[in-house]
Amino acid sequence: MKLTWKNKALPPAMVFILMLGVVSLLSDMTHEGAASIRGAYLALLGASAATIGFISGLGELIGYSLRLLFGQLTDRTKQYWPITIIGYCVDVLAIPALALVGDNGWIMACGLLVAERLGKAIRKPAKDTILSFAATQQGAGKSFAIQEALDQIGAFLGPVILYIIMLFKTDGSTREIYSVCFAVLGIPAILTIIMLFWSKKKFPNPETFEPEPKEIKPFRLNAPFLLYLAGIGVFAFGFIDFALIAMHVVKKQTVSSDVLPLLYAGAMLIDAAAALFFGWLYDRRGMWSLIISTLVSAWFALFIFGGDTPGMTVLGVLLWGIGMGAQESILKAVVAGLVPKANRAAGYGIFECAFGVFWFLGSWLVGILYDRSIPLMIAVSVIAQLLAIPLFYLSARRKNI
């Protein structure tokens, strides 16, 4: 398959990156559209703040910790495409199923949200690995940034579509309107699966993009990688899930509930722009791009939970979006530089598992602290993220990236 840009054919590796980017765009329309209202939805169904924090964290724990298992499975079987496709099907189809949840059905809704995270756990190491094969030929920072930018265009469109639905559908209860929103998200879910099969047909063996190394060395958890894991661990511990943010801004009425999808959509646009900028910076300055982005974004909780005006809320969500952009682009690019080709799926699995465990622990803690002391919750979030900076620096010094 050939695409052209200014009368020049794009390299096959870049075409593959763009096709997977469209897959990410469509899938993010689905689950990020859902993410913009899931916190408020769970609250409507009867879930408490502690439950929302726990389920958000549990979903991330399952979604990340099991990537360790599926990363190793992918490395052993080399069945990159089948594992990716199965994971995507579980991931995106769990979202429209939320439309079937009835009144007081928060337990069923929680189960479906956890199932969505399970699907992501299945497909993520395999998908990131096949993307890395092409990314090593086009620049890891740029490639993962392009992927994240397309991903976040979908993350922007999903909430906007839900906002439009809420704008015109005024009859029925809020829960019923939310159910319609989840049903509509079934459209990009199906398109995701169709695009995935088309990508597989055009590029059945993406591992051929990256040449085999002349010497295959066993992968070990060396000091640079361990320092990096520690850094992303404390970063994840302090990074607050949007479900709790959504619940807070609706509870405090700093923004109205019908504007919530637009607020999330704006964060996704910032995410996309930040991913492109910091991905470009990573190819030129290495780990410094991650250090800078963390230093900028670490303060979001101070504005969202410490402020009481719409302006402070918006500023905080924009900083949150910068953190998400770095999280989804640079963090993966670093792994591609630290882990050899033969073990990269396992490397991504270890990385994502560590991220998820600490995200779960942090989400659970901030959910508890929210009900007891918001200032303490803010302090934990900010300090944990800032602690990641020296660890990133030490990892870069040891690996020279």
Overview of the structural elements:
- With about 400 residues, the protein is mainly α.
- The protein has one domain (about 10-200, about 220-400): Growth Hormone, Chain: A.
- The protein contains 15 helices and two strands.
- The chain has helices at about 10-45, 50-75, 80-95, 105-140, 140-170, 175-185, 185-200, 225-240, 240-250, 260-285, 290-295, 300-305, 310-340, 345-370, 375-400, and strands at about 5, 10.
- Strands 1-2 form a two-stranded antiparallel ribbon.
- A hairpin with a 2-residue loop joins strand 1 and strand 2.
- The longest helix is centred in the N-terminal third of the chain and has 33 residues, at about 10-45.
- The radius of gyration is 20 Å and the shape is globular.
- The mean pLDDT is about 80.
Keywords:
401 residues; mainly alpha; Growth Hormone, Chain: A; 79% helix; single chain
DSSP summary, beta strand count: 2
CATH topology: Growth Hormone, Chain: A
Proportion of beta-strand residues: under 5%
Helical amount among residues, as a percent range?
over 70%
Unreliable stretches covering 5 or more consecutive residues: none
* Form type: globular
The major beta sheet can be summarized as: 2 strands, antiparallel
Structural class: mainly alpha
Order of strands in the sheet with most strands: 1-2
What gap, in angstroms, lies between the N and C termini? Answer: 34 Å
* Radius of gyration using CA atoms only: 20 Å
What is the helix/strand order?
A: EEHHHHHHHHHHHHHHH
What's the CATH H-level superfamily name? MFS general substrate transporter like domains
CATH class, named Mainly Alpha
What CATH architecture would you give? Up-down Bundle
Q: How many separate helices?
A: 15
Mean pLDDT: 82
**Count of the separate structural domains:** 1
